[in-house]
Amino acid sequence: MSGFRPARGPSVITLVAVLAFTSLGVWQLRRHVWRTADLAEKSARIDLPAVALPDALRDPRAHAFRRVVVRGRFELADTVLVGPVSHHHQLGARVLTPLRVDDDGPRVLVDRGWIPERAVADFLPRDEETPAVDVTGLALELAVGGDDGAGSRASRHTHFPRFHPDRPGLVGKLTDQLPYALAPMMVQSIEPGPGGVPFAEPARPVSPVDHRAYALIWFAVAALSLFAWIEYGRRCAREE
Fold first, then answer.
1. Which residues pair with 73 in a beta bridge?
2. How many domains does the chain have?
């Protein structure tokens, strides 16, 4: 074709780039299919009957988002407020408190729910023994480290800007200030506290990324690379 004469080097580079970008797009579409099935499976577990937390701990991944019941005493001195968090256009925070199931074993981190700003002072850490309570909620995998996870209260922070149970770095910042280990599963309470505060509701599993959007980006980059190669070939033909 007289009007299209690309050089060999740029043609090879473009071919490799288009194949690579297209493969990444296809991989993201496959991730989307897998993620959709995974979220559907986790959502279906929410409606299953509740199980005891020790049963869920035998296989944390298979019991993620399963309703569990656990009994213990809250370690109010180690409460952490995460926020600010918005709920129905109102600012507040989420209350995280370890639950002591037995004195020698690891504590179970409990997301007790959301509180408005006006109630923050009532949920600040305090040294107080509490009666045993039953906590019903959704079990979530907690990315604790491989060691015992015990830290020290020497550099304790009562406020965290954000917290995600599947982020080892964020979980590590919490365990570093606790003088005991945490179980590899946390519980997100689905029962509100006295007077409706903290406000608790079951979470729905969501994807951390939009795989379809990423796939579209990779396919677009592949198309732009191909378009640039075609224009380059035409320019080379005109110059000759």
1. 100
2. 2
Residue 192 domain boundaries: 66-196
Is omega for the bond preceding 161 within 30 degrees of 0, making it cis?
no
Same structural domain for residues 132 and 32? no
Are 150 and 96 within one domain? Answer: yes
* CB-count burial class (<10 Å; 0-12, 13-18, 19+) for 175: buried
Reported as type and span, the H/E element at residue 172 is helix 168-175
- d(CA 33, CA 55) in angstroms, rounded, equals 30
Alpha-carbon distance 239 to 180, whole Å?
A: 73
Q: Does 23 reside within a domain?
A: yes
Tokens at residue 9, please? 């080097």
The predicted-structure confidence for 120-158, as pLDDT tens digits, reads as follows: 888 888 888 888 888 999 999 998 876 555 777 877 888
100-126: pLDDT as tens digits: 998 788 999 999 999 998 888 888 888
What stretch of H or E contains 34? helix 8-46
Model pTM above 0.85: no
Q: Let me know the angle formed at the C-alpha of 204 by 201 and 209, rounded to the nearest 5 degrees.
A: 135
